[in-house]
Amino acid sequence: MDDGGDAPAHDRLAGVLRPVRAGNGFEEALAQILQVLRLGLVPEGGRLPAERDLATRLRVSRVTLREVLKALQDEGLVESRRGRYGGTFVRPRPEPARDARDELRRRLADVDVEDTLRMREVLDVGAAGLCAENGPDEAAARRLRDALAGTREATPAGYRRADTLLHLTLAELSGSPSLAAHYAAVRAELNELLDCIPLLVRNLEHSQAQHAALVEAVSEGDADGAREVMREHCAGTAALLRGFLS
C-alpha cells in the first residue's frame, strides 16, 4: 500500500496547495485540503504531508492547520495516528446512501453555485456599504445589534436562521427595497447550498468575529470598512462551499 509519505506527496501537491489570504485562513486552507482529497492526490490510507510542511505551504499557523485537520477528522475524512509512523491519514470515503446522493444532486441541479456566490457578494457588499453610508439612526442600529445578538445566542441548529436574519436586516436597512428583495431570493438559494455542507465550529466562530466587525463598521459609518469586512465574509463562505461541493 502506498503510504502517501511526505516526499512523494510534496511533489503531487505542488500545483494545488498555495498560500491563503489572511482574512479567511481556516476556510481557504480547509477548501484546499478538501480539493487534495477529492482529487485523490493522497490515496486512501495515505499520509498527508507533515503539519509543518502543510502550514508552510498554506502560510497558516500550526494552530489554524490543526483546527482544519480536526474538522476533516470530525467529518470522517482523515484520521490522526500517533507514534513513530504517525501523522494524518486519508480515510476511505464511504459511499453516501442513494437517497442522500439524490437529494444532493437535486439541490445542486436547481442552483448555479458560482452565479449564486457572485450575486450574493455583490448584494451583501453593496448593502453593507449603503447601510454605513446612510449612517443608521438609533432604531436601525438597535435592529442590527439585536440581529447580531441573535447570532451569538443561537444554537448550532438555529444558527443559519439567525445568520440569515442578520444579513436580511442589513439588506432591508440599505435603503433599497429592490436590493432587499433580490437579496432575499439569492439568500434562499445560498441556504440551499449551505444545507449541503456541515456546520463547523471554527467557521462559526470566525463568522461571528466578522459579523461583529461588520456591525461596528456600519454603526460608525465606515462604508469602506463595512464593504471590506463583508467581502472577506462572503469569500470565506464561498471557499467552504467550493471545497465541499465542487
UniProtKB/TrEMBL annotation:
Transmembrane segments: none annotated. It comes from the Bacteria. Keywords: DNA-binding, Transcription, Transcription regulation. Residues 23-93 form the HTH gntR-type domain. Coiled coil: none annotated. InterPro entries: GntR_C, TF_FadR/GntR_C, Tscrpt_reg_HTH_GntR, WH-like_DNA-bd_sf, WH_DNA-bd_sf. Gene3D superfamilies: GntR ligand-binding domain-like, Winged helix-like DNA-binding domain superfamily/Winged helix DNA-binding domain. The keyword Zinc-finger does not apply. Pfam families: FCD (PF07729), GntR (PF00392). The keyword DNA damage does not apply. This is FCD domain-containing protein. It comes from Streptomyces litchfieldiae.
